[in-house]
Specification:
This is RHOMBOID-like protein. It is found in: Membrane. InterPro entries: Peptidase_S54_rhomboid-like, Peptidase_S54_rhomboid_dom, Rhomboid-like_sf. It comes from Tanacetum coccineum. There is one protein chain. With 363 residues, the protein is an alpha+beta fold. The protein has one domain: Rhomboid-like (Rhomboid-like fold), CATH 1.20.1540.10. The protein is 47% helix and 8% strand. Strands 1-2-3-4-5 form a five-stranded antiparallel beta sheet, covered by helices on one side. The N terminus is likely disordered.
């Protein structure tokens, strides 16, 4: 399932993994557009909360008397009951500038093991229960583990190509990779299944429902799509099964004669495996080259932003704050509600802190 947050928190967290706001500098009039961005799944929540230590920097924490330094940030900061975005960056959240400008590429992997909050963990665990257990039982933890991690990285890469100023944590890309692998596994092992078309239609329906949820605010379909196609191609490579004739001739009882075959796999399985390996290698290499060159996918695809949010009369796809800045002094106005406030920042280039302040101002 994909989760969506209501309008008062427009620009915070929310997809299957959950999303946070991103700050995209406008080209005119000193405008910052604060839009939702990715959040992917991750590390033990307790570690994040221990490092976050909400009572040390805020008097609006949730249950500080009971949880002490493990207290949650206020609902305005994180409605999923979790730490602040600053803490998630310290823990290894994905941010384009840090990952590819400051050469912290490890964030492509660590972001998958972070949680944005308690609700985030719950949503992702449901996904694992319905998808991951079945695949691991049939194919083993090693193959599914490799598929999961590479799909998550694929989702992170595609998201980074289109979202340049954001932080990102969560497992949505990896979970969609498992869905993609289920589809390719069904196709490459087509001959061994009964009720093939019913299984195929059911799986496609589940995938489409999850993709459609990505068109609402706070849901990043870039990571969904990147993870899905990575998992789809990997499924042809790591989830291939031998044909029955080959298995039977290896386990035929004495005195029985089984149909023989020299090939462990069917010809179409081998063709799909080779084509998938080529697609994966080309896709990863080209995408990484574009990222290191600082290419913004939105410059070459004017309609791609609709893949992650389609505006309707019921919602908008971004909440915006206009600002004027003089050294460390920032004057900020929330455009949706007209609220104004002035802030003094220790680091005038700290876009994460600006995201946080805009969110509070617009809440």
């Amino acid at each position: 399932m994909v989760v969506r947050l209501p309008s008062p928190y427009n620009g915070i967290i929310g997809r299957l993994g959950v999303r946070r706001i991103r700050a995209v500098p406008s080209t005119a009039q000193g405008m910052l557009k604060f839009q939702p961005a990715t959040n992917r799944l991750g590390r033990p929540q307790g570690i994040s909360m221990f490092i976050n230590n909400c009572p040390s920097h805020s008097n609006k924490c949730i249950a500080p008397g009971f949880f002490k330094r493990f207290a949650f940030e206020s609902m305005k900061i994180n409605p999923l009951l979790g730490p602040s975005s600053t803490t998630l960056v310290k823990m290894g959240a994905l941010e384009f500038k840090k990952a590819f400008k400051e050469r912290q590429e490890w964030r492509l992997v660590t972001c998958m093991w972070l949680h944005a909050g308690v609700f985030h963990i719950f949503a992702n665990m449901l996904g694992f229960a319905f998808i991951g257990f079945r695949l691991e039982k049939e194919f083993g933890y090693l193959r599914i583990g490799v598929l999961y991690v590479l799909s998550g990285i694929g989702g992170s890469i595609l998201s980074s190509l289109f979202i340049k100023t954001t932080i990102s944590v969560g497992a949505s890309g990896a979970l969609f990779g498992l869905l993609g692998a289920m589809l390719s596994e069904l196709l490459t092992n087509w001959t061994i299944y009964a009720n093939k078309f019913a299984a195929l239609l059911t799986l496609i329906l589940i995938i489409l429902i999850n993709i459609v949820f990505g068109f609402i605010p706070h849901v990043d379909n870039y990571a969904h799509i990147g993870g899905f196609f990575t998992g789809f191609f990997l499924g042809f490579v790591v989830l291939i099964r031998p044909q029955f004739k080959w298995i039977n001739q290896k386990h035929v009882p004495p005195g029985y004669v089984a149909p023989t075959t020299r090939s462990k796999y069917k010809r179409y399985q081998c063709i799909l495996l080779i084509l998938s390996l080529i697609a994966l290698l080309v896709g990863f290499i080209v995408s990484l080259i574009l990222l290191y060159r600082g290419v913004d996918g939105n410059d070459y695809c004017s309609w791609c932003h609709y893949l992650t949010c389609i505006p309707t009369p019921l919602w908008t796809c971004s909440s915006r704050c206009s600002l004027s800045q003089l050294d460390k002094q920032v004057n900020m106005t929330c455009l949706p509600n007209g609220r104004f406030n002035s802030y003094t920042l220790e680091d005038p280039n700290d876009t994460i802190e600006m995201q946080k302040l805009c969110l509070e101002l617009c809440s």
